[in-house]
Amino acid sequence: MKMENTQIQKEIDTKEQELKDKIGEEKLSQIESMINEKGMDITIVDLNGRKIPLGAIQLELAIELRECLNDNVNTCFYTNYYFEHCGKRLNDYDELTTLDFSKDNEIYMKPDLYNERTARNHYKRFKEILYSPSVLNLSNDITNSLSNAINSVTKPQETEAPSSEGTPSETQNDTTQAESQPESTEDKKEDSKTEENKEENKDSENTTNDEAKKQQEEYNKIMNDVKTSIEEAKKNTAPPSTNEAVVDFEKVFSTPLDKDVVEFSPVKCLDYIEFSIFNPVPSAHALKGDLFYLKARTLEGPEIVITSNVKGFFINNSFENSTFDPRMSQRTSPCFSHSLVGLLIQTSPKFAEKLEEHINKILKTDPFTISQLMLPSSEWLSEQNGVRYPTEAFKSIHEEATSGYYGIDSKGSRDWNEEFQVCKDLPKDHIFQRIQRDRAFYKIYYDFTEAAQKGAIAIVNKSIPPLNPMDEENQHVFVYNQIFFSFAVDNKENYKDVSSNDSNPTYTATNHDMLGLKTLQVIDIDGVYIIATCHVNYKGYRVVAQSIIPGILTNTDQSTLTEFGSVDDGKTIYHTEEFTEVMKKVCDQLSIKEATILDEAEVKHVIPGSIDIKGIKGTDKRKYLLDLVRLTPRDTNYKGKNNTSALIRPELVRIYQKAKDIEYATTMEKQNEEPEIEEEKSEEKKFSEMTEEEKKQAIDDNKKRMEERRQKQIERLQRFEKHMKEAPQFSYNLNLFTNAKLAEGDYTEEEKQVRDLGNYINDVIIPRVVKNFEIGENVPTDNQSLSEIFHSQGLNIRYIGKVANSLSEGKLQYIRTLLERCMIVRSTAKVFNDLIRGVASSKASQFIAHLLNILLAPADIIQKLDAGENVDSEETNKEETKKEVKEVQETKQKKGKNKSKKNKKNKNHDEDVTKDEPKLFEIKSLYTKNFKSLIDDNKNSKYLSMKPSEFYQKITYLVKKRYGYDLPAKLEDNECRKTYKNKAALLRDLCIKIGLKIHSKNYNFEEISTEETKVDEKRLLPFTEKDVVEIVPKVKTFEIVNLDYKNFIGTAKAALKDGFYDQAFEFYNQAININLQVSGPINKEAVICLSQLANIHFKFGDYNQAVQLQTKCVILSEKLFGKIHTRTAQAYSSLANITTISNYTKAFEYMKRALYIHEMVCGDNHPEISSTYSSLGFMYLEIDDSQSALDCFRQSLYRNIAMYGEEHVQVANCYQIIASAYQNHEQFRQALEYQEKSHNILVRLYGENDPIVKNSLSSIDQYTKLSVQKEIIKKVEQRNQRPLGMNKKPKQGKKQDMKNSINLAQWLNMSKHPSFKGFQYNLAGAKTNK
């Protein structure tokens, strides 16, 4: 027992040492100190005198404590108070670390007097909690309560098998040694100690036996649950529907989690509460402290009018719409409170009861379902019968929308730049300081983005006047809510930089600027400041929103503030010594060289970086960097003046540098490895010549040698890392191949470095991307994932055409279809943006429906539209509607005649009375016309009557001009619109790209044959203007990422990869805690952590915790990415694999949901669809439904053949899986047939001597024997004879063992082959995990 424990401890120590060697001891100790560090112990005394111990908190300022109390359930309704410590009033910006908590750790909340601003904030907060609440916490540890609520899981413990007591030989040796030694008094004492130790060992053995029994019982329980779930699945699970040609849009919002996860709906506590008609407050009552008046109706019924006073809130004597008396009510007992909640609790017992129920419901609701998104949702479909808002929530939104504030904070105007830069100046030496700093960054940037989004929408809708109304519309600039707004122009045809002082930046330039902001935000250099920026794309406009640098608007001459760069296209160049030092720090981090530039007067200026970057020193003495367009060199693959803004991505610079570092380290290491390799070969020759006795003796030496080799391997890795650090670092001149005027000199080497980057794209990156597509690795699913994959490889989107042209003819058709779809979507978005700006708002939905029709309508309708024929968009006939209109008009005329006859007498009487009176004003003469003909914009008719051929001509031109790719001659010939599923994928990508939301219904864009059109002559257009719901703004921002979170994630990945699950769990847990404290529960990084934590729990056998965490991952994915998204499908697929342990019926629902999502996202064919069908097949095999499994495996096979062709390892793998399914069904002849097909492919791919081919051949032999044996049995049974030994059927266990021994081992061996990248996920998920 002790020997085993010591052996296990040695293994743990060696693994920990390996982890330390890999990660670094300093970094590991730093991370451990981060975990164990604590903060201040504080107790809050609220307004009611109740003490709330907060535990150890890590806060810097008192205002941060206020924000934390705002989310605590005990203090969430308190908004107007101040803090007091030891009798001294604290300012919100006082540092808590300066207070002495050793004598008194209590901080008191004291009520403060209201003003109109704070009273309105209190009213707004009250309505937020009642109708759209955020996450509230009940925990006293307020800084970690959110993470505890979300990740309330215990650390998983790996189950260990009961250990043996030792071998008999070891015990005999111990006893013989004890007998041979002479006894002494000391020996007797030792014997007594050993007897005590034996008794302790017996107790420990008993405990281990009890633990083993418990583990066995748990295992038996799990297996029984699995059996019962399999039996239920056999009854309830329907066979797969593999022949559906369409996807059902109406299933989007009916998810499998609807039964388990209920969306939060607020409990009704009041009938209503809103502002009274008695506002504004009369002057006489304002002098008495009245601020405004509210009216409310409680659940008991009577309406009350509430006075908001500087001291608090009370019910007055007024009656709405009748009597105004703002004095305190005398009708009931006097009700007064410092808060609205306190007042209503005194007034209405039902309110108190319902509010308690409402708060408890918030606490019980999963934070992921209740938290709000920072940016607009990426959901592109809307429920047809869905209610948008509850009544009171709609009223609060209506109040905000009709106020005309357009994003202005109710607390008052905010200086966004000052708030943003103050966060930059916060300390960051300590982990908790960095968390607080990033949380403040995130909160302020979130508020800025929300305000900028509302302001941009108001600007596009022309609700805010420009500063320069005399200029052209696209050059208008706006200042609103302390934010500077301007437009960016879309240069559709090329990548020419048309930006200047007199013209707007292009979309490409603003994209580069945003990328530069992201880069500087990550490297975070002290003394370098950037401005808060976001892009809002809405209704064809791109609005650039920026915080305002102090002094830049009051100074009309920017040259007085500019201290770096050029504001007049290189005529004058500024570079003060102070700013040059700042830019050198930036250039050192980003591999940028200094350059010698000539200005207009031929004066030389040595500046780091590009002259296009502008450095401005604000009146706040901070140094700001603007126009961060050129932080990377020019892309030499795109030459000419029309491509001056075509730049290299920063990812490519890093990838290229790392490749050169590895190349240098490899060459340096080879020089040291050559003699060692010769020695190893000579040692192997000597070992092969040894006798058997010498070999036995060499085993011990071999163990030592292995340890030495391990040490040498570690030394090699350390040397390799050292060589990589010593590798030459490349830096680039950003002013080459630009309009900058360089001084005379030899730039050959510098130009070669820039050209090498472009050549690296053509020679390495593009072939690597194509190779990944061929083996099914890093395959995009839609337009968004294609952008992410390209950018991660250092490729710009403009290379889509080159990648598509690099594909082999006739191969990877699904990839070509996807790339063509993305090019069409991007080009259509540009055409849409150009046209929608010229369409009147009253015709916008009609134009959008027409655009969707000419893109997605069936081919026969496209031909009719091109021929100028009218096609109905509704089922009702136009002639019938005209008749109905005529009948209505005739009835109106008859009624009008009768009324005129009756009123003639009255008119005559009135005329007689007023005939002699002179008319000073006649109203009818002003409104004799309705002006409808003038309001209707006739110029929109050209957009609404655009033919499909005209539209497609624009698309093909843009695709050729921007991407260098030739689309098919006709719109109908594009593969991405030939089938219903492909059209659904195209529609989804387009809606997400332009921010369009449509109704979720089944649209009529299914292609039919010419014979069917004769039968169904009445074909309707797919889309009408009623199907268009809204256009949502698409907001582009830079992300606030905590560096400590990145360190934890990187360490967790390394630990998980090496099998250190305990450490991986700790690191992932700490990572998600940091992330939740910085950005809350709704963020993309939380999805990664939750999924990995679920996998760790699943590996340790904590299945319930794994299901809970993965369910939260699905909920979060649906909220962040949308219900129809690849990541949502992957989350459902993982949940299905985990749920197979407990509930197969639900697992099938989850996996089918994943398949449904993949088909809507990807179209007809994709590796994700094939993989999901295989996973479904394995699940059907588990419940012994072989026929359904075969159907799924065949679907996977057909798709792989269509994607890769017959000669591919994926196809061979599918044949083997089908062979296994037939064997499970005891159809050995069919199994042999498919195994032979697989074997023939493998022989052609790898040759006959490959281990995979040999395993395949052995499987053929086994299937042949089983097939022959079955035929013999069949013939004998036909003769009514049974040979000896054949009178019983083979047992299920033997059949299962036989299946596993033949096929599963073969699949696993096949998965180890270097060229096999296929169904490893399915094997691991469906087989090996169990």
From TrEMBL:
Positions with biased composition (Basic and acidic residues): 185-216, 682-702, 875-893
Region entry Disordered, spans: 154-216, 668-702, 870-913, 1278-1297
Domain Clu per the UniProt entry, residue ranges: 389-639
Basic residues compositional bias, start-end: 894-907
Source organism, top-level taxon: Eukaryota
InterPro entries, per the entry: CLU-central, CLU_dom, CLU_N, CLU_prot, GSKIP_dom_sf, TPR-like_helical_dom_sf, TPR_rpt
TPR repeats: 1170-1203
A GO CC term assigned to this protein in UniProt: cytoplasm
SMART domains assigned: TPR
Biased composition (Polar residues): 154-182
Keywords from the named record: Cytoplasm, TPR repeat
Protein name: Clu domain-containing protein
Upper classification of the organism: Eukaryota, Sar, Alveolata, Ciliophora, Intramacronucleata
